[in-house]
TrEMBL record:
<dbReference type="GO" id="GO:0006412">
    <property type="term" value="P:translation"/>
</dbReference>
<dbReference type="GO" id="GO:0019843">
    <property type="term" value="F:rRNA binding"/>
</dbReference>
<dbReference type="GO" id="GO:1990904">
    <property type="term" value="C:ribonucleoprotein complex"/>
</dbReference>
<feature type="compositionally biased region" description="Basic residues">
    <location>
        <begin position="9"/>
        <end position="20"/>
    </location>
</feature>
<dbReference type="InterPro" id="IPR018102">
    <property type="entry name" value="Ribosomal_uS11_CS"/>
</dbReference>
<dbReference type="GO" id="GO:0005840">
    <property type="term" value="C:ribosome"/>
</dbReference>
<keyword id="KW-0689">Ribosomal protein</keyword>
<keyword id="KW-0150">Chloroplast</keyword>
<dbReference type="InterPro" id="IPR036967">
    <property type="entry name" value="Ribosomal_uS11_sf"/>
</dbReference>
<keyword id="KW-0687">Ribonucleoprotein</keyword>
<dbReference type="InterPro" id="IPR001971">
    <property type="entry name" value="Ribosomal_uS11"/>
</dbReference>
<keyword id="KW-0694">RNA-binding</keyword>
<dbReference type="InterPro" id="IPR019981">
    <property type="entry name" value="Ribosomal_uS11_bac-type"/>
</dbReference>
<dbReference type="GO" id="GO:0009536">
    <property type="term" value="C:plastid"/>
</dbReference>
<dbReference type="GO" id="GO:0003735">
    <property type="term" value="F:structural constituent of ribosome"/>
</dbReference>
<comment type="similarity">
    <text>Belongs to the universal ribosomal protein uS11 family.</text>
</comment>
<keyword id="KW-0934">Plastid</keyword>
Amino acid sequence: MAKPIPKMGSRKNGRIGSRKYARKIPKGVIHVQASFNNTIVTVTDVRGRVISWSSAGTCGFKGTRRGTPFAAQTAAGNAIRTVADQGMQRADVRIKGPGLGRDAALRAIRRSGILLNLIRDITPMPHNGCRSPKKRRV
């Protein structure tokens, strides 16, 4: 009787999430998305594949405290700590959104020891975008 073909995603036939060797990433891109309610920091390689991410919510902040600068600073520190261990030395920073955590996250990235090539603001700005709703009549 023939052996059954193992499924590619099954747990029995290999490692899930771990690697034989640690990936070395010398250069990357740090994306900071700062809304009024939360701050999300994502670290990718140059091709855009996510290496590490963190947000104020995953750092344990609840409710309105997620939108604070301290929560953004903590989230940026957590996201960068893992990639610094993998050997990241240089990075580009792309900041998006109007939130309070923009400057705090950038300050935390600066302090981490990673050299920054460029800091770019990619907040989408409407060029007289959608038509506004009609005026309220009471």
